[in-house]
């Protein structure tokens, strides 16, 4: 009896142990499933929280907080001429040397205020006392090229100073120097920085250029540019002229009987149509800067260089170099404003007292209020906390 009881007792223990082991395995499996489920749930919750945090962040529109993909760096200057044949500077080949360090960038843009031609017979009559026609030798295209300019604008009131021949000679000279020209009717200029292509669509209030008074045609050109390049920059030669024309009025402006457009409306419309940045010159004096829909608008960079071409009295001696970095999707990355001073003949030099920046900040605040694009003491330009 005792001998038979041991195996029966052992057999019962084995079945019970087996049962408990099976229950233990099932319990462990169930616990593992629960833990994995909790982990996955937390993962999704974390992702959702992160997504919600990103969507509700106060970072201003288009102000990047991470390294931009394939960014483009560009510098912009205003009206530029190097005298008027035969009145030319003796140091033309080194005319930009004092500002070269601030000017240098993969893409350099300037407004060519005049022509590159040896043609005679300007638009001005022999007895005219209030008409200006500018031309430099075609060889001066190489001076601009040596200074780094690879995009020059011809949408202005001086591109046709010497008629069709002057226009043709200018186009040939720029092409020979591998400088992209923009602004003639239907003409878009292109440049690249690394892998990113930039289109420059330039306008002035004339039918002999891309016409900023024709907003429907302007939209077509901007839309076309958007299909050809990742980044679109619009330049406008707009507004009245002179020291009394420093403010952006938001109204139609005129000068010597010409309709010079409504710079503010045109700039806003250009961005609505797809432009990523708007820059300007034409008033021959600096104007303020504005944020609109997260994009920067500069309303005038004044005169960058001349040789007895322009007045340099008072505020008209102030000018600047605007440096802008945009991501390949057109969003704003960074900006910098370098203040310059023009000497008595119109040659630019860096101004360590930053008079131009002070002047522009005052104009921006007065004209645009909370939408003003302000320049910091170090020259940087950053969007406000909530860019309009």
Automatic annotation (TrEMBL):
Keyword match Acetylation: no
Capsule synthesis protein CapA domain residues: 73-308
Biased composition, class Low complexity, residue ranges: 49-66
Region ranges (Disordered): 49-69
SMART domains referenced in this protein's UniProt entry, alphabetically: PGA_cap
Transmembrane segments: 20-44
InterPro entries given in the database record: Capsule_synth_CapA (IPR019079), CW_Biosynth-Accessory (IPR052169), Metallo-depent_PP-like (IPR029052)
Keyword vocabulary terms for this entry: Membrane, Transmembrane, Transmembrane helix
One Pfam assignment: PGA_cap
Family statement: Belongs to the CapA family.
Record's protein name: Unannotated protein
């Amino acid at each position: 009896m005792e001998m038979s009881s041991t195996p029966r007792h052992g057999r019962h223990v084995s079945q019970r142990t087996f049962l408990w082991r099976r229950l233990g395995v099932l319990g462990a499996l169930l616990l593992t499933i629960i833990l994995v489920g909790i982990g996955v749930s937390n993962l999704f919750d974390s992702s959702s929280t992160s997504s919600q945090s990103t969507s509700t962040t106060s970072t201003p529109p288009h102000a990047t907080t991470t390294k931009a993909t394939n960014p483009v760096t560009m510098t912009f200057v205003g009206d530029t001429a190097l005298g008027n044949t035969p009145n030319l500077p003796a140091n033309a080949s080194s005319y930009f040397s004092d500002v070269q360090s601030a000017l240098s960038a993969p893409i350099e843009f300037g407004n060519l205020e005049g022509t590159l031609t040896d043609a005679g017979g300007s638009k001005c009559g022999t007895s005219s006392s209030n008409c200006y026609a500018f031309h430099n030798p075609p060889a001066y295209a190489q001076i601009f090229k040596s200074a780094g300019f690879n995009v020059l604008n011809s949408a202005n009131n001086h591109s046709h100073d010497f008629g069709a021949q002057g226009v043709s000679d200018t186009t040939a000279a720029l092409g020979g120097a591998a400088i992209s020209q923009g602004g003639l009717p239907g003409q878009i200029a292109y440049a690249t920085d690394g892998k990113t292509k930039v289109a420059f669509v330039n306008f002035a209030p004339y039918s002999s250029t891309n016409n900023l008074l024709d907003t429907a045609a302007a939209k077509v050109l901007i839309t076309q540019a958007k299909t050809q390049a990742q980044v679109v920059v619009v330049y406008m030669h707009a507004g009245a002229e002179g020291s009394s024309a420093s403010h952006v009025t938001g109204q139609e402006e005129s000068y010597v009987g010409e309709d010079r457009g409504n710079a503010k409306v045109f700039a806003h419309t250009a961005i609505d149509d797809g432009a990523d940045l708007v820059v300007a010159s034409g008033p021959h004096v600096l104007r303020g800067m504005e944020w609109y829909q997260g994009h920067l608008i500069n309303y005038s960079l004044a005169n960058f260089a001349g040789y007895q071409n322009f007045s340099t009295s008072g505020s008209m001696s102030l000018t600047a170099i605007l440096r802008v970095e945009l991501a390949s999707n057109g969003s704003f990355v960074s900006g910098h404003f370098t203040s310059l001073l023009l000497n008595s003949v119109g040659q630019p030099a860096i101004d360590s007292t930053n008079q131009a920046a002070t002047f522009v900040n005052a104009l921006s605040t007065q004209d645009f209020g909370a939408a003003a694009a302000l320049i910091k003491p170090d020259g940087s330009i950053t969007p406000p906390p909530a860019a309009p």
